Amino acid sequence: MNLATEDFSKYDDFLDQYDMYIWDFDYTILKIHSYASNIELKDVESASWKKLMADFADPIFFRDLVYYIRGKKKEVAIVSFGTYNVIKAYLDRLFDDNNIFDSHNILTPLSGNKRYSSSFRVNSDKNEHLVCLMRQNPSIKYDRTIFFDDTYQNIQAARELGIKGVLINPKIAFTKAIWDELVKTETITVDKKKEKKEHCDILGTENDLEPRQIKKRNTKKDNVKKVGCHDDYLIETFGGAEKKEKEPEESIGTPISSYFMNWINIFAVILILAYYLIKKYTGQPE
Ligand SMILES: [Mg+2]
């Protein structure tokens, strides 16, 4: 747990890029999966402070960051598949101000203590709730929104909306080290990628991960940046879907060069046929 008082003003340049900050809860704000662990409201309310804080990935940093973001008149939200009452209880114990997170910005299909069943299944992604959240905040644009989640499908779906996605490693969840890495990586991007940082020291995490290499993949096509290696990635970022709109170019029409190539092929077939016909009827001796 980070008890030092952070100077959050150093993050201002990064924070100014977005007006809405959205987090998943289980395996993102918490380093455990409270829903899968069957944690109930009474468990959260009765847990000791120490035990409760141990469920968070980096509670003090998250709390102070949220306060700082709110101080800049920006919005924060939780979009989760978990149980509303449990999420609210965790956050109420972390934040002195119980109005920071409530029903206006904790969005989940599971109101109250409801749980999933054979007749009530989890959605394939969180876009329904993300759209709902954005409609509640009509002044905020999708491309000014950033979303942290440990599930690839949720991040990819959000990206289709134009939301910046940050894939969190569930083994680490959302910590100051992860945040710092994100800010550093995005700052490199903003600096016109003036140097390709194939090797980069990364701060250790509370899980004592070894320093790892920066790894980028497919950045041109998908605007994707991956930091870390294989399943031990620290974060993976996905730009909004602005590039996606350019992809249908191929289906708009067949390029002229394709027509030209077709005619060359037809001409070649005619030549070959003519050759064999001439060969046959000019009577080459058997
Ligand atoms: Mg999660």
Please describe what this structure looks like.
With 286 residues, the chain is an alpha/beta fold. It folds into two domains: 8-185, Rossmann fold; 253-286. Helix content is 38%, strand content 11%. The chain has eleven helices and eight strands. The chain has helices spanning 12-15, 41-46, 49-55, 59-71, 84-94, 127-136, 152-160, 176-190, 219-222, 249-252, 256-281, and strands spanning 20-23, 75-79, 106-107, 145-149, 164-168, 214-215, 224-227, 235-238. It has an eight-stranded mixed beta sheet with strand order 3-2-1-4-5-8-7-6, with helices on both faces. It is elongated. It starts with 11 loop residues before the first helix and ends in a 5-residue tail after the last helix. The model is unreliable at 196-221 and 243-256 (pLDDT under 50). Magnesium ion (MG) binds at residues 24, 26-28, 150-151.
